[in-house]
Design a protein that fits this description.
There is one protein chain. This protein has about 280 residues and is mainly α. The chain has a domain of about 170 residues: MetI-like fold. It has 15 helices and no strands. Helix 4 packs parallel to helix 7, helix 9 packs across helix 10 and helix 11 crosses helix 15. InterPro entries: MetI-like, MetI-like_sf.
Amino acid sequence: MMNKKLKPFDIFVYVILSVGAVSMVVPFIWTILSSLKTMGQTFSVPPTIWPDPIVWENYPESLQALPFGRAYFNSFYIASVVVVIQLLTASMAGYAFAKLKFHGHNFMFILFLATMMVPSQVTMIPLFIIMKNLGLLGTHMSLILPAALFNAFGVFLMRQFIASLPGELEEAATIDGASVPQIFFRVILPLVKPSLAAFGIFVFLGQWNNFLYPLIFLNKTETFTVPLMLNFFKGTYATDYPLLMAGTVISILPVLVVYLFFQKQIIQGIAITGMKG
């Protein structure tokens, strides 16, 4: 590989990918640098790249300005509960569509996937009305219940992976007298741990970064999540951008930790979606 000569097309692809990578990293670096500046440095003309002096006090001030501790707990609690329930429901539905040949299962699976094409803006108002009639507005259950019980992407992901498992495993378990639930929990579930890990990471990141639905369903400060709490740094007439950037850096730390430690599972999860079922 080291002695292999690069073709002009390969060089062109690497250049395009490098430009794309830099364009995605620059805003993040700018956020970190801005979180260490004063308000005057933030709006200086011409703009200054490196903060001088470095204002480390922005981070403790950002944590003290708003109840970030409570918001962190709320985001982690909501994301964790949604992950656990979605892993169970998506894997069970994926197993049913992949291995249980009931009448009309292909049509139901296609119909299920068709819901992925419906924009969330279409279902937003009906979902709000449902949560209001159930008396769940202003509570975390209004965020947990809809997200935990339905995820078409997760069902598709689990169905693709489970369909690739050899059918001889189920046949052997059936001969040994195992029922369908026993086959699922004792045979199938241990074999799909890689896909479960990848899917769980996707769900956790999505719930942690969710802003729109908490904005619609939550109305009490003590129930706010981290993205919603960050919105409070924006004032009516002025915004303290250094504190806002410091809070943003603090909010994305869990996401960075998850991505750095679980890159393999994330890439594997993307690859699983391309497997034939």
